[in-house]
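pinging the channel bc i need a second pair of eyes. not urgent but kinda urgent?? the chain im working w is below, pasted from the shared doc
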Amino acid sequence: MRQRFLALFLIFALLSMQISVSAEESSSPLFEEIQGKRYVNLSILAETSDIQVEAFAQGVRLSEDGLQINLSADSPLIFRGDVILAAMSAPVILENGVWYAPADFYEEFLCQGDKPSLFHGALFYGYEILEALAQPETPFHQKLLSAISLPTSMGLHVPHFDMARVFSETPLSAFPSELTETLKNLGYADAETFTYSEYEILSGMQTLSDAGLASTLNSYPELQNADPDKMTVAAFRAWQAQYDLEQYQAGLTDAEQAFLAEKSITIKDFQYLDRYFYGACLEQSDDALQEALTIYYDTDLAFLKTTLPSFSDILETDWFYDAALYAVTRNLMKLSDNQSFQPAATVTRAEAVTTLWLYAGKPVVNYALRYQDVPPGEWYTEAVRWAASEKFMTGYEDTIFGPEDPITREQLAVLLYRYAQKQTDSLWDAPTYQISFQDRSALSEWAYQPVCWCFITGIFVGKSEKILDPQGAVLRCELAAIFQRYDNAFPT
């Protein structure tokens, strides 16, 4: 009896020791304060959940039943593959051989339920959802279905609040102004009105060659005859989306096809499903989601700037730099072979009228020119023909136009004023405007009203506070600025 008691005592003691050791091992705190901030110990997280933690070069990879996310020491973003799921308050850190994540990663991304799980904050693709609905037996599919909501067209719940909606609705005016200013320089005068998703479509207007994606066509035999110098990024993406959809549909299992038929899911529903859905997301408001979306801003802006022309004779600090960008990117004015803009060169009458012709979209008119100094086939001939037919600019005489003569400031004012009148389809007058420049007497009476109009609209400014210089020549930098101001005042 005594021996049995001793044996039981020893067993109980050993069990107590084991329990004590286990308790001591698990007593390490899940949360620790490091450099004044709360962090979660990822090693302990792995011990107390279904999540596995694996270190790689610049961070950690977290896995749970086939779902993986990456956390980097260089970024506060949470990635699944190359897709951003959410943003933490800080990147992960390595302390004494242990990786730590900010406390909000645990409290807001992992713990939307009773138990921490990667599925609470992950993003799932349509094909994964369809597979889960058709074959829900695996742990991955079970957790996926418990973490998401689905389209109402499937008779299920409304989709979760997600970044895609904010992405499609956020105007570019909500982003740093440099983005819209750069887009304006590229020719999009109403850039502030774009939503971010519309901007994405616009950024796809470049050709595959211009975007450095020409080699992408090599992956698709179906596009072997496509010209990368002509196919736009947007057109390629649209083709690729349809191609991927067809390939995906062709690979559906019998169970998946049966599920689609049972639920009466249409092609439209299927295309919707083939996008993606978030589980619970770290950001809980439009402002927070928009803030996360701005992570794309710097990359976008850096790319856009590579598409802008470079000037060999203009600095970004020059007052007319934006105007020169405006004129060149809209093909109103050209650069020389060495990228020279020649801002101080004098503008001729032929150059001025051609710039307006290009601005108007190179209209074609049937009109007989009588000017002896405008021969057929010159680079300015059709522009002069159009301007003469519309009476925007006439010659000195019936047979003399003076294409190589410098255009004066008052002549340019008249040209723009008459063009603007035609666009409004009415002959409206400029209100009374007292020109108080010291050289008012140098202004021709026939040009007084057009010059008044140019000043009222802000298209023209004086050479100084006191000098108008109506008979002075127009420089190329001034012409670019005047057309930019005209476009801002009367956007097409």
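so The chain has a mean pLDDT of 78. and Residues 38 and 103 are 5 Å apart (CA to CA). — does that match what u expected or am i reading it wrong
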